[in-house]
Structures are given as C-alpha cells and as structure tokens.
Write a structure and sequence with these properties.
Layout: E1 2-7, H1 16-28, E2 31-34, E3 41-47, E4 52-65, H2 67-70, E5 77-84, E6 87-91, E7 97-99, E8 104-108, E9 113-128, H3 130-134, E10 147-148, H4 153-169, H5 175-193, H6 197-222, H7 231-237, H8 242-251, H9 256-272, H10 282-288, H11 294-305, H12 309-320
Antiparallel strand pairs: 1-3, 2-4, 3-4, 4-9, 5-8, 5-9, 6-7, 6-9, 8-10
Helix pairs in contact: 4-5, 4-6, 5-6, 7-8, 9-11
C-alpha cells in the first residue's frame, strides 16, 4: 500500500502555495486554489493496487479537473463522501450540485469537473475502477455524475466505520491486511452505490460481514470493562441474532468469548508491566477488566502469557528496585 501525506502547516507561510501547486495538485490530477490566507490543507492518501482512498481537510477550496488533466488516461470513478461541510460539484459541463454529509457524489474522472467549498471542509474520496463499477451497478444513470443518498444505509454506516479505522491505522498495514482492506472497501462502496443482485450477494458475503465484524470488535473494545457484556448484548446492539454473531466471529477463527477474554487479559498484562501501576492489587485489576472469578482469571492469564500475574508483577518490581 502506498501512503502519502501533505500538510500545508509543514511549510512556512511563504512556501505553502508553491508546495500546494507542485506537490498536492499534481498528485490529485487537479488545478487547486485555496482562498484562505492561512492556506490550511491536510490530506492523507492511501493507494491500493486498484483503488485510492483520500481524506482531505480543506478551507475555502476550489479544484478543477481540465481536459489537460484528463489526458492522463485515468477513467476511474471518484466516490465523494463529505464528512463536514458542503461540497459543490459541477461535472461534465453540467450545473452545480451540492453534496452534504450523509450524501454521496460519484464523479467520473474521464470528464472535466469543478468542485468547491466555503469554510472548513472534511471529505473522504474513494477512487474506484470504472470497469469494476460498470459490471456491478444496477442503475448507473442514477448515481454517475449525481448527488444521491446511499442505496444501502447499513452498508454506508459500515463503510464510514471502516474508513475511520483505516484513517487511524495510517501507514501501519501489512501487505495482507492492505489487500483485504481494499476488497472490503470496494465491496461496501458497491453496496452503497446500488449493485445488481448477483454482485450484492458476493459483496455482502465479503465486505459487509467483515466490516460488521470490525464494528463489533470496536464496540466490544469500548465496553470490555462491563462484567455483564455478552454475545446477546452485542448482537442486540447490531440488530442481529447471537447465532449470527457467533458465526461471523467463527469465520475469523475466534469465538466471542475468546476475543473478549483476550482483550481483557491483554489490558491486565499492560497494567502489570506499567511501573506506575505497581501498587495496584492484581485482584483489583482483574475485577476492573470484567473478570468475576479470580481462580479462572489466573489460569487463563498463565495460558496466554506463560507466566502468572504474580510472576509478571514480580519481574517489574525487581526492575524498578
């Protein structure tokens, strides 16, 4: 996975416009103007083999893709997802359409366009292969060159969550993880755009299921200290059955219980090796992490780390004496 970051604040005020014109604009295949005197632009781009994901924070921004840029031969489709602020887009010589958070715009890069925004603007853009979309879209005329609502609202929420996780991962993705991430993004994007029935089944079996798995893991991570947390509670939150939840975890070689116990044990271990926590009772840490049976906790801890909690604590204590 290729990774690129441009932040205008990395340059002196006198260098920012030159850096924007010579670095950011050519990368995006655009002419760009930022009207704000402070020139605040922060862009992170991840390039996968078949798709590109860009997160952009811009202020008072206008961009043009001209016939000169189109000569680069890029016929991808750009799925524009405003996260903050309103995007005004005019594609192929048509009238300007406005795209707000919760809406999307599918922009063909083989046509010239103008996009602009006033004030602070945060947008995610996903470059998708034209051939990939044309073979899957159920009604291309309803979405290409238009502002529209997601065809599948649940897939859209999962896509936003997936993109958020990807943003925080920055460039820390292995090759295998990057390949999987690209598949999930493309499948979820296809569902959001509205695909034919055969493509929907294929995408649903891959993108939605994996994104839902990631969303459930995030939910569990946030609530891991709740001793009452259970598969039933998580399933209810995601409006699925506990049996389906267990099936999804099983496809990724986990059980719900194994995953929950693993993150709780990892948390306790991190507290035990932290010299600042050396006075905290092991039992207090275990109970705080959601364990209710200390004997079971001790056995599970030793199976996972090869040492008892007391052994780990003793090693840390010796190091700080």
């Amino acid at each position: 996975m290729g990774y690129f970051r441009f932040n205008s604040q990395d340059y002196s005020e006198s260098e920012r416009r030159t850096a924007l014109a010579e670095t950011y604009a050519p990368l995006c295949g655009l002419d760009v103007d930022v009207g704000d005197e402070q020139l605040d632009v922060n862009v992170v781009v991840r390039a996968f083999p078949r798709t590109v994901v860009a997160d952009s924070f811009l202020v008072d921004h206008t961009a043009w893709r001209t016939h000169t840029h189109i000569a680069d031969g890029d016929d991808s489709m750009l799925l524009v997802i405003p996260r903050q602020g309103v995007s005004g887009i005019a594609s192929g010589g048509g009238s300007e359409q406005f795209c707000t958070p919760g809406e999307l715009y599918l922009l063909p890069l083989e046509d010239p366009y103008v996009s602009r925004n006033e004030g602070a603007h945060f947008v995610t853009s996903i470059g998708l292969p034209k051939q990939f979309l044309e073979s899957r879209l159920a009604a291309p005329d309803r979405v290409i060159g238009k502002s529209f609502r997601p065809r599948d609202a649940s897939a859209f929420e999962l896509l936003l969550g997936y993109l958020k996780n990807l943003y925080h991962a920055r460039d820390d993705l292995s090759d295998s993880a990057a390949k999987l991430a690209e598949i999930q993004i493309m499948d979820l994007a296809a569902l959001v755009l509205g695909v034919d029935s055969d493509s929907e089944v294929a995408a649903g079996n891959r993108g939605v299921r994996y994104a839902r798995y990631q969303a459930m893991r995030n939910y569990i991570n946030l609530r891991m200290f709740d001793p009452e947390l259970s598969a039933d509670i998580v399933a209810r939150h995601f409006n699925i059955s506990p049996q389906y939840l267990r099936k999804i975890f099983g496809e990724f070689n986990f059980t719900f219980t194994d995953y929950l116990n693993a993150i709780r044990l990892d948390w306790v271990y991190q507290q035990l090796v932290n010299p600042a926590k050396v006075r905290d009772y092991i039992s207090t840490l275990a109970y705080h992490a959601g364990f209710s049976n200390l004997a079971w906790f001790n056995r599970a801890f030793k199976r996972r780390f090869g040492l008892s909690p007391s052994d780990v604590r003793e090693k840390v204590t010796e190091q700080i004496r």
